[in-house]
Amino acid sequence: MEQTKNDEKKITSRAVDYSQWYLDVIEAAQLAENSPVKGCMIIKPCGYALWEKTQKILDEKFKATGVENAYFPMLIPERLLKREESHIEGFAPEVAVVTHAGGKKLEEPLILRPTSETIMYEVFSKWIRSHRDLPLLINQWANVIRWEMRTRLFLRTTEFLWQEGHTVHSTEEEAQNRVLMMLNIYKDFAENYMAIPVIPGRKSESEKFAGAKDTYTIEAMMQDGKALQFSTSHNLGQNFAKAFDVNFLDESGTKQYGWQTSWGLSTRVIGGLIMTHSDDKGLVLPPKIAPTQVVIVPIVPKEWDKQLVMEESQTVFSNLRLVGISSKLDDRNIRPGEKYYEWEKKGIPLRIEIGPKDLASNTVVIVRRDTGEKKTVSLPDLNEAVVSTLELIQNNLFEQANNRLVENTISVDSWEDFIKAIESGKFVRAHYSGSADVEEEIKKETGATVRCIPFDQVEESGVCIKSGKPSNGRVIFAKSY
Amino acid sequence: MEQTKNDEKKITSRAVDYSQWYLDVIEAAQLAENSPVKGCMIIKPCGYALWEKTQKILDEKFKATGVENAYFPMLIPERLLKREESHIEGFAPEVAVVTHAGGKKLEEPLILRPTSETIMYEVFSKWIRSHRDLPLLINQWANVIRWEMRTRLFLRTTEFLWQEGHTVHSTEEEAQNRVLMMLNIYKDFAENYMAIPVIPGRKSESEKFAGAKDTYTIEAMMQDGKALQFSTSHNLGQNFAKAFDVNFLDESGTKQYGWQTSWGLSTRVIGGLIMTHSDDKGLVLPPKIAPTQVVIVPIVPKEWDKQLVMEESQTVFSNLRLVGISSKLDDRNIRPGEKYYEWEKKGIPLRIEIGPKDLASNTVVIVRRDTGEKKTVSLPDLNEAVVSTLELIQNNLFEQANNRLVENTISVDSWEDFIKAIESGKFVRAHYSGSADVEEEIKKETGATVRCIPFDQVEESGVCIKSGKPSNGRVIFAKSY
Q: If both were cysteines, with which of B92, B205, B331, B365 could B353 make a disulfide (CB 3.0 to 4.6 Å apart)?
């Protein structure tokens, strides 16, 4: 659908207007569009297929650790949201409220879930009696609503899709292990599937989740040098357990509060995927996340070649399926050039061109989306060549992004250098006093925030880049989406 | 989790209180429970696993017909909902309204989607330009909200999960084919996976979807003789196309309105599944929809037998996986009887008991959930025996339900017999004038409605059971959920 409209529009180059480039790539690849409701997006089939693949990969990994899926209501009574003090403070400005239903005014307003800690933990408190009921490991795939002023397709929308995991443990140690286990699953997904290198770490006080004891994050660098918070995993301590009375009898029969975690990943990662790999021709997808990994384009300059070429294309399609490669055979009656252009925009990692001349020499041509490199491959070797080339593409995209991250992360020790580095789109490793006031000042002056206190932080004496107070190590500052 | 609580409660028998039995089965099998928000349910892991399996089966079938998944916003501007007249008439009493968000009163109230025709078709009208953009075949898996007064777990809840398919075609014939194609997919799913026999047919005027030209349905019979509308498929004609300007240029360049369909299946089918097969011991699941098909229970009367029994149990588990059977090895340190009781309540189709005596003779015992039948099977034949017994269970459950449907569907020609038949929980084939007034009268007096005008209706002259007016054929009346 819609080819007619999209074929006409050119993608703005990154150098000219990065923001417009992002929107153009999304439009050209038919991933999503704005809806009649302000701030809410429509995820189109090509975009939704990326979310489905994300769900499939993560869901398996979650379940392998014992997590079970469930579904909780999207409507939350206002009184529940208010139960944990810092939680409601954090979310109050963003909630949407149902006041009328079934033709009547409701006695108590209902909130559309911005996240589900409150309704889930109210229920968990009834489910859990004894240490034998623990750990409780629940995940839900759902839509959530957060009323955002400035929205941007995938990155920040009023409604978005996500998964939210919620667990209860009998010890603090087990909860903390779970927090890091899930962060590692996210890191594995980001790096080994989406080919997005990330920096794992802990959030500063002012950036942590409303109600959490500690928030852990993985941070990615986009092509403009801005950070994208890929996903987070929270150690909730006993904050919510105390507010919602999530308690259990331990082995000695003593009442204890549970230790809780929550962790989530949303459709915003698709925004991160787009901004990490795409180029001025359009979307670029790593093979391991691409719903379609290969497109086969038959080339039929003369009608009498048609049968042979189509038969061979069909054979190639079937052979690829046998080795688990998802491909598309584009047999539409339009010029090959038009097809190349379309599949380039849509980010299909590899193209196979099959024409009568190639077949005469028992070969086909394969073309990489990431580098544009063309290669002639003999037909009997094709499956193997496709598998290994897809691996090369996956690795190349990761390396490219990783080089960018490494080259654009610098250590800085003076305020002047800090400002310059932030302005030129760097991730900056700098000393920091740890105080929220100072972070706020830095944000006001430069737009940068503490992205994380990285796990690889080295103990090192220094002075805070802004306040001059003593510091034990560097944190990572950047502007962010 | 929760074993402690649920083990204590006994399931009410169907003969004593059918409604309570239904709720008890759900509680005992830990499928769902009521939430702190009136009318909304929490789908617990065992219940959600059934929905996941439903999604997986249907999603593949949809995609095989060219349907693509997408996601549209859950918030719908009030003005859009009002565009198609009979649609808003049907849904107005059930909508929930967001009036405030982000701390402010909204300029235009937003409706929580009760279904997505309006927002989708507003967008489709922009997507579609030419006949080359057709057919457009979109499906979405989502939550919807309909404000219901009397709710019942799975069967009728304020929020429920479903899929809604929406298609646009260039001809009326193609649209009608799609309507019946999807109804057939639902029928296949009901009968061949959920083992629920259904009667396909067309809805009467008063029971059809608000805004549809025709609604098609498949109707199932529950154990109390009431009907459950399993799912519906609507031919929307050009009603919405005209209201939302969904038009296209045909091959001659003339503007035409699209021909549309929509079709949906919701979490209520899980209610139908429970009520079709379960018994006084709890849930009974057909193997093809059961997330876990087999439970393996090692029996270790003496500690010294433990290693052998556990090793053999593990081998059985691995062997079953090789032939695609999903099983659970219950190695908890509790009495086997407790395990049997628990898995019976949870509806696992087949149990394998492995003890030292059996192993001495190289056999195990298998026990069917549907009939309770026990059988000794030699170990080398186990895989084959499990596969064939699961098939027997699947077929037996379907036959049992089908016999019930056939035996309790009767033709009736007098009003007295009609009343008696409806009171005794039958599906009644009776002549009917086709007028909505008469249907309303019948409903008032007996509680029965026209479930469908069945596809197998025979042309036959008769007089309407209520009004005495002439009729050309019998329709199916029943009380319904």
A: B365
Q: Which of B370, B346, B224, B339 is nearest to B282 (CA)?
A: B346
Residue B288 lies in a domain: no
Q: What is the pLDDT of residues A266-313, one digit of tens each?
A: 999 999 999 999 999 999 999 999 999 999 999 988 877 889 999 999
In chain B, pLDDT over 70 holds for what percent of residues? Answer: 98
SS3 label, residue A365: strand
Same domain, B163 and B82: yes
Q: What is the pLDDT of residue A1?
A: 41
Cα–Cα distance for residue pair B246/B239, rounded to 1 Å: 10
Q: Do A71 and B51 touch (CB under 8 A)?
A: yes
Closest residue of chain A to B134, computed from CA coordinates: A1
Q: Which two tokens mark B473?
A: 């054929």
Residues 6 or more apart whose CB falls under 8 angstroms from that of B212 comprise B234, B235, B236, B237, B239, B262
* Residue A428 near residue A416, CB atoms below 8 Å: no
Chain A closest CA to B144's CA: distance in Å?
A: 10
Residue A70 is nearest to which of B48, B112, B133, comparing CB atoms? B48
Q: What residues of chain A lie within 8 A of the CB of B135, using their CB?
A: none
| CATH number of residue B91's parent domain | 3.30.930.10
Give the closest of B37, B52, B130 to A110, CB-based. B37
Do A383 and A422 lie in a common domain? Answer: no
Residue range of the domain that includes A58: 3-277
The CATH number of whichever domain residue A305 belongs to comes to: 3.40.50.800
Q: What is the ipTM of this complex?
A: 0.96
Does B3 have pLDDT greater than 50?
no
Domain end call among A361, A392, A423? A392
| B31 vs A contacts (CB less than 8 Å) | none
Question: Does residue A430 have a pLDDT over 70?
Answer: yes
Residue A287 lies in a domain: no
At A47 the pLDDT is 98
Q: Same structural domain for residues B70 and B214?
A: yes
Whether B44 sits inside 8 A of A1 (CB atoms) is no
Residues B45 and B139 placed together within one structural domain of the fold? yes
CB contact (8 A) between residue B71 and residue A80 = no
Q: Which two tokens stand for residue B481?
A: 């959920």
Does A308 share its domain with A454?
no
Establish if B397 belongs to a structural domain.
no
Question: Which of A43, A44, A94 lies nearest to residue B102, judging by beta carbons?
Answer: A94
* Cα B187 → chain centroid: 10
**What percent of chain A shows pLDDT beyond 90?**
92
Helices in A36-92 by DSSP H: which ranges? 45-64, 78-81, 85-91
Q: Same domain for B41 and B84?
A: yes
Instruction: Look at residue B1 in the predicted model and tell me its pLDDT.
Output: 41
Please tell me the distance in Å from A474's CA to the nearest CA on chain B. 36
pLDDT score of B246 more than 80: yes
Closest-approach residue (CA) in chain A for B46? A70
Are residues B344 and B246 part of one domain? no
Res. A2: pLDDT tops 70: no
- State pLDDT tens for residues A83-106: 888 888 888 889 999 999 999 999
Instruction: Give tens-digit pLDDT for B193-238.
Output: 999 999 999 999 999 999 999 999 999 999 999 999 999 999 999 9
Candidate from A37, A40, A103 with C-beta closest to B93: A103
pLDDT (0 to 100) of residue B8:
60
Verify whether the Cβ–Cβ distance A70 to B101 is below 8 Å. Answer: no
Please indicate, yes or no, if residue A135 is contained in any of the structural domains.
yes
**Mean pLDDT over residues B405-412, rounded?**
98
Number of domains forming the structure of chain B = 3
The enclosing domain of B467 has a CATH number of: 3.30.110.30
Gap between the Cα atoms of B168 and B138, Å rounded: 9
Chain B residue numbers touching A45 (CB-CB < 8 A): 68-70, 138
**What does A452-480 look like in DSSP terms, one character per residue?**
EEETTPPP--EE-TTT--EESSEEEEE-B
What pLDDT is stored for residue A338 in this prediction? 96
Residues B84 and B157 in one domain: yes
Q: Could A101 and B100 be called an inter-chain contact, meaning their C-beta atoms sit closer than 8 Å?
A: no
Residue B420 has pLDDT above 80, yes or no: yes
